[in-house]
């Protein structure tokens, strides 16, 4: 492995989207060495070793981008940032104490936003770096300063989908990362209805996106992958008939396509699928969809791609564009609106002002409503479109608390959509 280097640069990861067969979007991630000016000096093979568990991930997957974002900072810390202390010049020379020091500093130091990292983020960092280095150890053997025992230990752990199993886990005990408040991921039904109403009034470009999250469980990146009926890829909103002959809307997320002429990725589809709209929310979804189609009639966009969500320059909205508009909705309209309410809404507004609101909040609300309706974990997994049942089990485990804290509703989302979406 010829990744030795001088101390004038650093490791960087780069992901780009390429067009595959029939317009299918393919994302590839590279790990490279750049000089101090950002110019690429060497392309490595480190992306071939990325992993967060026993099995690696292909550089041609969306997960590789996330894993590389965890792996390259650790490499830079050991080889560049602590060069006077560690004195190494290659990933092969990294030792367990070096990794432990990095994990400790990562867990206890603030992220770019000034907040300490959440515990699950710290654990993800540890897992990616440990299993990626373990794959390097398996390939390079005695050339590595690390041994398999340094990195992994066999333990009996409990996995909700499998029960107690014996598996390999990272052999690191790192504390920290427990104090970060993080973006809020909880919201009451009443507060979300206020947010949704404000979206129809002030950010109509993403209001239907919030509904796709709240009524069908989409993630923001999946929302950005939706396209109109006139797209070369066909419609994202399709209809099937139920046993009574009623038309049921479904969202076609079966393939990730190139959505812009500049080939910029709009975001990923975590699990390619046909996502059904939950039956209780069909009327609200269709009302929001009609509102959005009327909105699009006044917008310009690239006709070939015909994205469902567009920016001011007519390009498909990316995840970053969507998040920016969502944050504007929260900061400029939602927080001021809550400040005019009585507690507990006004108190919640102060919390949102301090911590911000996660753009995935609609999917969270969607899942809470599934739990409130008494769905089993298997049914929640199906309606969320998840690969595994673990997320559903997490929500289900807290269902008693949800029943105490949340207001049970039938379908009053529909009232919010009718009130705000229909008055424009």
Describe the protein.
The protein is an alpha+beta fold and 424 residues long. It has 2 domains: 9-143, no CATH class; 189-421, hpI Integrase, Chain A, CATH 1.10.443. Helices cover 44% and strands 14% of the residues. Helix 6 (189-202) packs parallel to helix 16 (413-421), helix 7 runs antiparallel to helix 9 and helix 10 (319-339) runs antiparallel to helix 11. It starts with 8 loop residues before the first strand and ends with a helix. Mean pLDDT is 85; it is low at 400-411.
State the gist of this model.
The protein has 424 residues and is α+β, with helices and mostly antiparallel strands. It is 44% helix and 14% strand. Strands 1-2-3 form a three-stranded antiparallel sheet. A three-stranded antiparallel sheet has the order 6-7-8, with no helix packed on it.
């Amino acid at each position: 492995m010829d990744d030795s280097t001088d101390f004038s640069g650093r490791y960087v990861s780069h992901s780009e989207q390429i067009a595959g067969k029939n317009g299918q979007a393919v994302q590839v991630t590279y790990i490279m060495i750049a000089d101090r000016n950002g110019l690429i000096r060497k392309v490595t093979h480190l992306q071939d070793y990325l992993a967060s568990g026993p099995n690696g991930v292909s550089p041609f997957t969306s997960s590789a981008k996330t894993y590389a974002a965890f792996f390259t900072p650790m490499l830079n810390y050991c080889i560049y940032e602590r060069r006077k202390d560690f004195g190494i010049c290659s990933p092969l020379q990294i030792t367990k104490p070096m990794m432990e020091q990095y994990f400790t500093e990562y867990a206890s130091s603030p992220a770019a936003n000034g907040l300490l990292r959440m515990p699950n983020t710290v654990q993800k960092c540890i897992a990616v770096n440990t299993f990626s280095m373990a794959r390097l150890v398996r390939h390079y053997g005695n050339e590595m300063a690390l041994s398999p025992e340094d990195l992994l230990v066999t333990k009996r752990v409990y996995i909700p989908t499998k029960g107690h199993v014996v598996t390999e886990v990272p052999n690191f005990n790192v504390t920290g990362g427990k104090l970060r408040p993080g973006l809020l991921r909880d919201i009451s039904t009443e507060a979300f209805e206020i947010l949704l109403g404000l979206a129809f009034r002030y950010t109509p470009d993403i209001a239907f996106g919030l509904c796709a999250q709240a009524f069908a469980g989409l993630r923001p990146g999946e929302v950005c992958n939706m396209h109109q009926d006139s797209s070369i890829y066909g419609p994202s909103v399709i209809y099937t008939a139920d046993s009574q002959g009623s038309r049921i809307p479904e969202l076609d997320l079966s393939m990730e396509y190139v959505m812009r002429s500049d080939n910029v990725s709009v975001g990923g589809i975590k699990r390619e699928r046909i996502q059904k709209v939950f039956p209780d929310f069909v009327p609200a979804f269709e009302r929001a969809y009609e509102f959005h189609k009327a909105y699009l009639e006044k917008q310009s966009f690239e006709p070939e791609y015909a994205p469902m969500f567009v920016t001011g320059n007519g390009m498909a909205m990316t995840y970053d564009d969507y998040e920016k508009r969502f944050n504007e909705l929260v900061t400029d309209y939602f927080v001021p609106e809550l400040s005019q309410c009585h507690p507990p809404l006004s108190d919640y507004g102060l919390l949102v002002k301090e911590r911000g609101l996660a753009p995935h909040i609609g999917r969270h609300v969607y899942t809470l409503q599934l739990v409130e309706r008494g769905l089993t974990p298997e049914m929640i997994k199906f309606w969320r479109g998840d690969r595994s049942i673990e997320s559903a089990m997490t929500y289900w485990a807290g269902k008693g608390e949800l029943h105490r804290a949340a207001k049970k509703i039938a379908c009053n989302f529909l009232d919010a959509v009718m009130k705000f979406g229909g008055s424009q």
